[in-house]
What we know:
There is one protein chain. By secondary structure, the protein is mostly helical. The chain is about 55% helix and about 10% strand. The protein has 2 domains: about 5-75, 2-Layer Sandwich (Alpha-Beta Plaits), CATH 3.30.70.2080; about 80-289, Rhomboid-like fold (Up-down Bundle), CATH 1.20.1540. The strands form 2 sheets. Strands 1-3-2 form a 3-stranded antiparallel beta sheet. A two-stranded antiparallel ribbon has the order 4-5. Strand 4 (about 120-125) and strand 5 form a beta hairpin.
Amino acid sequence: MTTVAVLRLPLAVDLSGFVKLLQRMQVPHRVSEESGEQVLWVPSNISEDVRVLYERFPLGDPDEQLAIPEARTVRRPSFAEQARHAKGTALVLLLSVLVGAVTLLGDNLDTMRWLTFLDYHVVGEYIHFVPLADSLAAGQWWRLVTPMLIHFGILHLAMNGMWYWELGRRIESRQGTVNLIGLTLLFSLVSNYAQFAFSGPTLFGGLSGVLYGLLGHCWIFQLLSPNAAYRLPRGVLVMMLVWLLLCLSGLVSMIGFGEIANAAHVGGLLVGCLTGLLGGLYNRRKLAA
C-alpha cells in the first residue's frame, strides 16, 4: 500500500503522545527524520483522517476510545492552538495587522513610505517617487518584499489574511516554517517587481500576489505528489482563477473595487506554479527512492 507523508514537524515537537494514540488505534504508521524534521508516514487512503486527528489531538488522548472516522466530529482546536503549529503563518499575519495599524490602512503616507516598493516624498497634492536604484544603493533592500504587509482598508486586510491563514498553514504543515517564510518572501519579491515593471511608479501593496503564489504552489505540487495537506477544494481553485480573470478583464475595477494589482497576481501565480513543479518533482523522486 502506498504511504504518504502526512506531517512534517520540527524535531522539537513531541510526537510521542500522538504516536501512542495511533498505536492504540492500530493505525499503520512510521516516523522518519529528514532534513532536520520528523516525518509521519501513513497509508494514503487514511492520510486525511490522520491529519485531521492530529489537528484535534496533537498531544494524543489516551483516555478516549477514538476511531479515525469519529475524529471529524470532535472539538475543533482554537485559533491559539492552531497558531502554535503554524508559527510562520501567524507571524506574517501579525506583521500585516501591525503594519495596518501604524499606516492607518494606507492613510498615513508618512509612515507607509518606509515600506513601499519605491520611496517617495509628498509635496502638496503630489507624490514624488525616488528611483528604486537609489533606495537599493542606500541599503533599503527590504522594500523588495515589504509591500506585501501594506493593505488599503479593513476588507483588503481581512480577505487577504483569511486566505493566507488557509493556504499558509497547509504549506507550513507540509514543508515547515522556514520553507513557508522563504516561499512567502520569494512570491512577494516576484509579484512586487512584476507590478512595478508593469505599472511603473505607483503605490501598491497587499498579500494577494503572495496568495496566488501559494495557490499555484499547492496546486501543482498536489498534481505531481498528492498530499492531503495540499488538497484544495475544487471550488476554491476555480473561484480564485475566475477572480483573477475578472480582475484582468477590468470588470472588477469598473464596479468599484479600485485599482487591482493584476501583474502582481499573475507574477505570483506563475512563480508559485514553478516552485510547486520543482517541489512536487523532488518529493515524488524522494518517495520513489
